[in-house]
Amino acid sequence: METSIKNLSELEKFDLYEAIHSVFEKGLETKEVVYSPGAQEPLIEDPVSKMTFQLKIVDGLGKRPYNRPVQPGETAQVTEEKVNEVKEKSPFMHPEPELTVIGDLIGDYRLLLNKFPNTEDHFLLVTKKFVKQDTLLEPIELQLMYAILKNLNNTEELKRQGTKFFAFFNSGPESGYSQYHKHIQFMKLPEHFPIYQSRLTSDTNFFLPRENNVNKHPLVNKNASFKHGILKLKEEFKDAEEQETILAMLYMFLVRRVLNVFKENGYSLDKLSYNFLMMDDWMMVVPRRHARYEDVWQNSLGYMGLFNAKNEQVRQKMLDLGFSKILQECGFPIEEQEEKISYDEYSY
């Protein structure tokens, strides 16, 4: 029988990790999930960017279908006819029951396993109706992301494994998505994997960002090669209304910054693209100008330090190009005084 969750309170109490992991294990047995763990890859420390990277081969990447109205870099218009073609092919409209974790999530959403996962327990939050991937995140979608991350990252099993889940949303034609049907992804970090976002936010208190106050600007890893902004989340919200308001305010502040980056660099807003990443204590945005560099495809994962190649040839190319160079070319180069840059909050 289909699992149904009616509201956020039910989701907070639901044994989510057990549900995800049991569906994942069954999917492996029945071969509905296309995944092989591969060798344990060593972590690579970059002394310049102060980022930790992992590079691994993921066999399923070469089998993953692409369903988009236009390809990255194309100037063709996204017509209604093309959107309808994509809608007809969407794997999320009629998902496989064997990949379904929650079939009805507050009426409008589902939780599904990724059929071609990067890691074990890699899953998706998808809209039941067809919604374009290039639309903004709704306030309820931010709340769902937060509730899911809080639920998962407080489980004893994940603490025992020394890992946490993070969420990511690839938005815009150059953001690196493969499916045009709106979806948010959730993945586990490698065990004991250090991330610069947590290092930055652990040393600061929560604040509401302001463009006219440099002390209220988003946090920045000054050693990184790419433009980005990170905001710490409140540890506790007094009620659901405050949670909805603050999450939406922080997200829209970061999106406005993306709009301004595109405007100042002379890029058309028709190509507006960004990666949005989130854990239960921070959120982050990375403006994107290209989906790939030298034929190396990149979505949100590289900006977490996670690089995945479909074969040995691509893996070697990533090493030859350099992680920081790939991230810089797919994003926008960071500026010397990045943390002090103020944008017009009301004009873009």
From TrEMBL:
Residues 49-190 form the Ap4A phosphorylase 1/2 N-terminal domain. InterPro entries: Ap4A_phos1/2, Ap4A_phos1/2-like, Ap4A_phos1/2_N, ATP_adenylylTrfase_C, HIT-like_sf. Pfam families: Ap4A_phos_N, ATP_transf. One of its GO terms (molecular function) is ATP:ADP adenylyltransferase activity. The active site is at 183 (nucleophile). Residues 223-333 form the ATP adenylyltransferase C-terminal domain. One of its GO terms (biological process) is nucleotide metabolic process. This is ATP adenylyltransferase. It comes from Eeniella nana.
